[in-house]
Amino acid sequence: MKVFENFDSQLRRTLLALFTAGLLFWSSLTALLPTLPLYIEDLGATKQQIGIVLGSFAIGMLLFRSGFGLLADRKGRKIVLLIGMLVNAIAPLGYIIVQSIPGLMAVRAFHGISIAAFTTGFLALVADLAPEKNRGEIMGYMSLVTPIGAAIGPAIGGYLQAASGYTLLFLLSTGLSVMGLLCLIPIVNPPIHKQQQVNSNDGKFWQLLFSPRVRVLATIMLMIGLAFGTLHTFVPLFIKATKVNLNPGLFYTVGALASFSVRFFTGKASDRYGRGLFITLSLVVYALAMILLWKASTANVFLIAGTLEGAGSGILMPMISTVVADRALPQERGRTFSLCIMGLDIGIAIAGPVVGSVAEQVGYRNMFGFCAGLTVLALLIFLTQCNNNIPDSLRFALGRGKDVYSLNQS
């Protein structure tokens, strides 16, 4: 992390405040991961209803993601970060007050607004601040907020729920986000000229979404979003159904630790060896994780699968974000990030209700076999479609060639 020593003190302070806010945001959000499905089940919901409630999270993301991308480009990244953190502070209180299935769907959809705003603003601001030659390294380091928060949150959430019940857990989630708001206040936006002159007409929106530099990345995120949404919705219930003696929070914790570990070296290595090689590696590892979950029947296999899933996502998410930053102009970065990540949002939205209904018919185990197939499909799409033709795609995906869509090549 010596690269930070070369930055001026103002930039270091901004990155530190942003990192701390991100850590608090993800700790607040993920504290509910191992407990919320069980909370909804305790209220009498069926498997499909649990999927529908948790999948409603993506409704807020889908409805607001593109708008926040445009807002970040026109008014600055900070306002979008503040909106995301504020919603993340309010939403947990809704779970205490509302206990009907339709009401919980509404609260969960509102909660989804938080991640639509915060992640868009966070990625765009880090890309603005990071020097071009160190972009992969800086985005890799700053993305550590996700696995660290995802390690802290579920562990605390699972323990607090078991010891004190759900109410204190939801209050803790709110408190962490309030602390995050305080960290965001001193952050200063980059010069506004980088965020002006953005044409917001719908034609440009859809033209950008379906452009070659965005659509394949968005499709990859869609495939992984389906697997990710299934995993984070149904793993606690799958573990319970198999009668394996394992705290579901530990599954997420080992995944977060693996995700944390790989980000230390993959970002810097991608600046040297290329982003494509590491995206390919991440998709292979993610597919192996889904296959193991499909076959899992012991605690050790669940933990190995969780470790691989964490490693796969720990490589994939910052690498996709860095490729998006490479392919986007500063004044369109917010929209480009929002459109690409929208694929993930759609996958998560579909995973809850649709895959939940599949689980009703074929069970949790075969549901994860379906997810394994999706990740293999994502790998094949990336290997053959990530650049302007199959030979160029294979070269980029295997670290043998440049990204022809990058705007930052010398």
Describe this entry's structure for a reader.
By secondary structure, the chain is mostly helical. Helices cover 80% and strands 0% of the residues. Helix 7 runs antiparallel to helix 12 and helix 11 runs antiparallel to helix 14. The protein is globular.
Question: Key features?
Answer:
410 residues
Helix and strand topology:
Layout: H1 9-30, H2 36-42, H3 47-55, H4 57-75, H5 77-97, H6 101-129, H7 135-142, H8 145-164, H9 166-184, H10 202-209, H11 212-242, H12 248-273, H13 275-295, H14 299-327, H15 333-385, H16 390-397
Helix pairs in contact: 1-6, 1-8, 1-9, 2-3, 3-6, 3-15, 4-5, 4-6, 4-15, 5-6, 5-9, 6-15, 7-12, 7-14, 8-9, 8-12, 11-14, 11-15, 12-13, 12-14, 13-14, 13-15, 15-16
Number of strands: 0
Radius of gyration: 20 Å
Distance between the first and last residues' Cα: 25 Å
Backbone shape: globular
Percentage of residues assigned to helices: over 70%
Overall mean confidence score, pLDDT:
85
Largest sheet: none
Quickly give the structural class. mainly alpha
Tally of alpha and pi helices: 16
Report the uncertain regions.
194-203
Instruction: Give helix and strand order, one letter per element, not per position.
Output: HHHHHHHHHHHHHHHH
Q: Could you tell me the strand content as a percent range? A: under 5%
